[in-house]
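[step 3/7] fold_predict: job queued, chain A
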Amino acid sequence: MGAAAMTSSSAPQTPATTLGKDGLGQQPWWVAEWMELINAYRYKKRLERAWTYAREGNVRSIRFEGRRVQARVQGTEPEPYKVKLWLDVLSDEDWDFVLEALAGKARWTCQLLAGVMPDDIERAFAASGRRLFPFKLQEVRSECSCPDKANPCKHISAVYYLMGDRFSEDPFVLFQLRGRTRAQLLGDLAERRRRHQSERQQPSAAATPAAPAAAQADRWWSYNAPLDPDLVVITPALEGGSGLDEAGDLPLAAEPRWPEANRHFLEGLRRQGAALGQLAMARAMGGGAP
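[step 4/7] structure written:
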């Protein structure tokens, strides 16, 4: 018999889950992150009973009521036990930091729209100093109406396992537990992305005007202000300081019929460079006149 699935409505439902004898099968990383907390619980016998409850349909219903998860789990008594689980909700100020970080990275938004949890999502939550995933099991708040004083009891643990099953289908459940539904999260992200796009398209009033030379290539190397002769020293380029020397070996194709062609070509380039350098020196010494 399948275990109950989680629903946002108040009516209990019992469709099938992917829970198998050995666990949830192939798990997305965010499900494994959630399950790691409960699997680290030291009362292993209690976890084994919880697995049995989850797999054999003892969890009669799981549903959201606001930001809490409400469940009914059949135990040894005729009446099912009532279980509640919840996480600490982020404040509006915390969410403002998170949403700003998410909106600033297109990849995060695209993955969330595709129903995939970004593997570095905690970096967005770090902007608020909070976390999406609980750091330890004690951060998952829970209550059960059973007489067992231990927390989590096997009824709570069974619900916890099935929540992992639900997360594999919809990672937005985790955001809902932290205070933002899927619709709210994606709506806020879309609005912030539009705002960022609009700000990028609007010219900044404080932007520094472009220098005239930026639009006129013939003025890039011009300098019309007078120079103090005592501060100006004009010397020829050092040996080995030509552009060819800096560039290193050029990838010239060899021509077997004229094996010396490349050498003559490079020597011609060097002669040309030396002649232009001498011309530049002459113009510089003459004050820049042609």
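[step 5/7] annotate
The chain has ten helices and five strands.
The longest helix spans residues 261-285.
exit 0
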